[in-house]
Amino acid sequence: MNFLQRVMLGKRMKKTLLISLLPFAAVLLASSSFAQGQIYRCGNEYTNNASDAKARGCKPFAGGNITIVPGPRPTPAAAPTRAGAASQPRVGAADQRARDADARAILESELSKAQARQTELLAQYNNGEPEMLGPEHRNHQKYLDRIADMKAGIDRNQSDIAGIQRELARLPAAQ
User: Fold this and answer.
1) Cβ 135 vs Cβ 142: under 8 Å
2) Full domain range(s) for residue 144
3) How many domains is the chain partitioned into structurally?
4) 0.70 exceeded by the pTM?
5) Residue 134: pLDDT band with limits 50, 70, 90
6) Would you say residue 128 lies in a domain?
7) 29 pLDDT exceeds 70?
8) Which of 17, 89, 143, 155 is the most exposed place for a label (fewest CB within 10 A)?
9) In angstroms, rounded to a whole number, what is the distance separating the alpha carbons of residues 40 and 59?
């Protein structure tokens, strides 16, 4: 290796070394710019003003860095308005009675369907002993699973019936 090659190799190594040390230098400069003086704790407040802290009788805080994020300011409670009711036009008494009658008719038809379904489910359930189907003769667990599904269906349908009856009770009486 001649002299010129050694000089060029040295320059490349210095350049590579400088580039690799650049991020470390940046971190050192950044951390020194964030350095703080002594921090004092005054109850639930923190301050770095030494004269104010001594006047208020605050204690020096020893520990890690403190990050304080201010919470949102509470907004004054506004008086409740009936904007939704005011934006919709009023309905006449006759129209409202017609709507109630329609709702009652729909609910009563749904109730009769649900009750018919309930009697059908109870007939199939046969007090917990429905007829065994073909593959259930060889695999008793399938039979037990089908019974459990039937029981869950009966319970679901019964809760549907109770919900429809509650809705009917909320409506005004039929005229």
Assistant:
1) yes
2) 93-170
3) 1
4) no
5) confident
6) yes
7) no
8) 89
9) 5
